[in-house]
Amino acid sequence: EVIVMTGFGDMDMVIRALREGASDFLQKPIQIDVLKVALKRAEERRAMRRKLREYAQDLERLVEERTRELQEKNEELEQFVYTVSHDLKAPVVSIEGFTSLLMEMYGDRMDDRFRHYLGRVRDNALYMERLIGDLLEFSRAGRVAKPKEEVNLEEIVRETLEDLKGKAEEAGGTMETVGKFPKVWGDPEHLRKVFFNLLDNALNYSHPERPPEVVIGCEEREEDFLFFVRDNGIGIEPEHIDKVFEMFRRLEDKKGVQGTGMGLTIAKRIVENHGGRIWAESSPGQGSTFFFTLPKGRRDEGAARGG
After folding, report:
1. 215 FRET partner, CA 20 to 30 A, in 12, 28, 231, 258?
2. Mind giving me the DSSP string for 37-70?
3. CATH number of 149-295
4. Angle of helix 188-204 relative to helix 263-273, nearest 10 degrees?
5. Is the peptide bond between 29 and the residue preceding it cis, with omega within 30 degrees of 0?
6. pLDDT given at position 20
7. 290 in the Ramachandran plot: left (φ > 0), alpha (ψ -120 to 50) or beta?
8. Which pLDDT tens digit goes with each residue over 226-267?
9. Cβ-contact 229, 290 below 8 angstroms
């Protein structure tokens, strides 16, 4: 604590002293009672600051403990989802396989109702198989399976467009790129999944009255890269725009779309695990644009995961 004592009554000097860290100001001649009061106040302020430091340290320790506990619980939950999904996959595949075998071997002996019911069993087994696969993918997206590396997104985008070329052509649509795609630090398999899921989503939710037109691009900014996937599809209602990344969330307007509603959820998890963020903008009936960012430079797993 600093107490300024002076024989001058210059208020500018008083203000300057207080700004530079003085806690009190006394003008000579100084009475002993006034000095005692000033010293007592200074000691009280020092004790209060010490208490505040202790409280801040206790709070910081508590936050660290709670954060560590939450991370451990999340890891346990991810491991549980992975284990359960993995263990469920084999019997579901068996159900689908045996129903297909029954249809093939005895289909001509079944009446229409029996064939219909058996077909329903097979279709639901196939859906369950896709769902389990997506749950496994979601679990893997949150796990640091291998060290990150430099990823050439130009190649990733080109290969992803090639993978979906047949689907786009079947719908009479087009896909094109805008700008150059950079090299970033990340997991190539996971980043490929982000682009695939966003492009596949754009093709799935095309408008019934026009062929799909999908544009994917990149813009370099000061601290990160901004990517976008724009389509001319059915769009998203305003009340649903914040829910499209939720688990198992699917648009109700588009019928006949195969999937479990996990694609955007997986993309969101991967982007956030790489230190970026993802969001959507849309005009119902006109189309949607999905944006996501990836940071420049190398980031370790702890920074990307918020650890």
Report:
1. 258
2. HHHHHHHHHHHHHHHHHHHHHHHHHHHHHHHHHH
3. 3.30.565.10
4. 150
5. yes
6. 67
7. beta
8. 999 999 999 999 888 988 998 777 665 454 556 677 889 999
9. yes
DSSP letter for each residue of 193-259: HHHHHHHHHHHHT--TTS--EEEEEEEE-SSEEEEEEE--SS---GGGTTTTTSTT---SS--S--S
Distance CA(306)–CA(59), nearest Å, equals 19
Rounded-to-integer distance, Cα 23 and Cα 2, Å:
6
Scanning the structure block, which residue is given the tokens 């644009």?
Answer: 289
Q: How far apart are CA 111 and CA 303, in angstroms?
A: 61
Tens digit of each residue's pLDDT (9 = 90 or more) over 176-212: 999 999 999 999 999 999 999 999 999 999 999 999 9
272 SS3 class: helix
Instruction: With 0.70 as the threshold, say if the pTM is over it.
Output: no
- Residue 248 near residue 260 (C-beta atoms within 8 A): yes
SS3 293: strand
The C-alpha atoms of residue 36 and residue 93 are separated, in whole angstroms, by 85
- pLDDT, greater one: 145 or 250: 250
Please say whether the beta carbons of 187 and 249 come within 8 A.
no
User: Mean of the pLDDT values across residues 203-226?
Assistant: 94
Structural domain boundaries in the chain? 3-64, 74-142, 149-295
Rounded to an integer, what distance in angstroms lies between the CA atom of residue 17 and that of residue 27? 13
For 119, other C-beta atoms within 10 Å of its C-beta total 15
Q: Place 9 in a pLDDT band, splitting at 50, 70 and 90.
A: low
Q: What's the CA gap between 278 and 300, in Å, rounded?
A: 20
